[in-house]
Write a structure and sequence with these properties.
This protein is α+β, with helices and mostly antiparallel strands. The protein contains six helices and eight strands; from the N terminus they run E-E-E-E-H-E-E-E-H-H-H-E-H-H. Helix content is about 35%, strand content about 25%.
């Protein structure tokens, strides 16, 4: 067994969540992953259950710790990444209100076109380029216009990375890169 401290990398992807545990030199100790479902309720739509993300993360982490023979007390740091533009709507108690709208979901194409047509000065952060139906503001606008009950009951609309970071730490954060370029 390699001595700690250890560092954990978590990667939340489109089809699975993966956990890697590394020693203090950055050498991999163990990798574990769990697949989760992806649903396409309509053409151009893609959704997932955030609670399934969490269940799969817990399973993958437990398996990595067990199979890697790593004491959780020896974990000194965790890094997380996830797909951007995967949107989660939560109520005021941080409970998931509906399946997450995945990054590849383009149901908000009309909303994206309308956002782009505003010519708003904030668009300078993406170089006044095209606005994507994948981005959170477009998906949030889609929710407002097409699922008003979900939108009205949402205490927070966030991205996958924000949600999982909150589940791990109890803190709400957002990536400045995502916020500036895609929001």
């Amino acid at each position: 067994m390699v001595e700690g401290p250890y560092f954990v990398g978590i990667d939340g992807g489109t089809e699975s969540i993966r956990v890697g545990i590394f020693d203090r030199e950055g050498t991999p100790v163990i990798f574990a992953g769990e697949e989760y479902g992806l649903k396409h309720p309509r053409s151009g739509w893609a959704e997932q259950d955030p609670d399934e993300w969490w269940d799969c993360l817990v399973k993958a982490m437990r398996r990595a710790l067990d199979e890697g023979n790593v004491d959780p007390q020896e974990i000194s740091g965790i890094s997380v990444d996830a797909t951007t533009c995967t949107v989660v709507a939560l109520d005021n108690k941080d409970r998931v209100l509906r399946p997450a709208i995945m990054w590849m979901d383009v149901r908000a194409s009309d909303q994206a076109r309308r956002v782009e047509e505003t010519g708003d000065p904030a668009l300078k952060y993406n170089g006044y380029g095209s606005v994507s139906a994948e981005w959170m503001p477009c998906k949030a606008l889609w929710l407002k216009e097409n699922e008003p009950d979900t939108y009205d009951n949402a205490g927070r609309i966030c991205e996958y990375l924000d949600w999982i970071t909150h589940r791990l730490t109890g803190e709400w954060t957002a990536s400045i890169n995502t916020a500036s370029f895609r929001w």
